[in-house]
Amino acid sequence: MRRGERARSRLRMLTPLRRRTDIQTRRFRRGVYLLPSLFTMANMFCGYACIVFAMRGEFATAAPFIGAAIVLDMLDGRIARLTGATSDFGVEFDSLADVISFGVAPSILAFAWGLYPLGRLGWAAAFIFAAAAAVRLARFNIQVGSTHDKRYFVGLPSPAAAGVPAATVFAYPAGINTYAEALPVLAMVVVPALLMVSTIRFRSFKTFDLQARRSYAVLFLFAVGLALLASHPEMILLVIAYTYLLSAFIGLAWHKLRRKEPSGPTPVSGEPAPVQTMGETPEEPPTGDKPEDLSGPSFPDPARS
Predict the structure, then answer these.
(1) CA-closest candidate to residue 109, choices 74, 68, 61, 156
(2) For residue 50, what are the domain limits?
(3) d(Cα 165, Cα 153) in Å, to the nearest integer?
(4) pTM higher than 0.90, yes or no?
């Protein structure tokens, strides 16, 4: 027994000691930041509620849940940054919640509302929207630490893409039951899906400074917008969704028009020289450029001498 204890003590002396910091870095942090995670959980709940009500055919109730999810998604990130509660867990949890709220929920809502008469074509188009949202969110996660312009999104953001079918269903909740009427619904789903995975830049409002002083007219315009939203919420939300969808194309057209500058006609090689008209005097050569006298030196005439 004593020999075994001595051997163990020798092995302990030979093994290198580990620092306490090395041991702590291998452990995962337990617990999460509660405040931003609550907003993310509420965001995911809104997406789940939209799916439930869409399957029951209550489209007027299902569509506003996507709008509520968009507001919650805007708040959870800002609250996490303001309170210093950002974490890797929060980023991953937010992405998973967005896949449900802005990928799966809008696709099921669009299929139940207007793509169901198309059969396989309808649910295939709905799946394309959900897949594009997942790819868009995965690409956004790997672009967070890159040096791209923070004023713009690369591709249509998934909340804005989800707002297009949600605003359309909220404005026309009756639904579509015929094959011919369901064909235009494909554009409502496929076009935002393609824009999500594209590289077209869309304006981001994350850099908008709310603490800076603004004109009084800005506050008045905000009041007018609230009044219009309260009086005609269906049409105002529909206009906002499709205006942001078309904003990238309007911006591209505007930049192309600004780049075009008027320029004068350029001379073409081989063009004939201009003809001299009456009244015009030919240009004199500059001083020091007179032609040389090639007749040679002059000698006196012997007959005259």
Answers:
(1) 61
(2) 32-258
(3) 20
(4) no
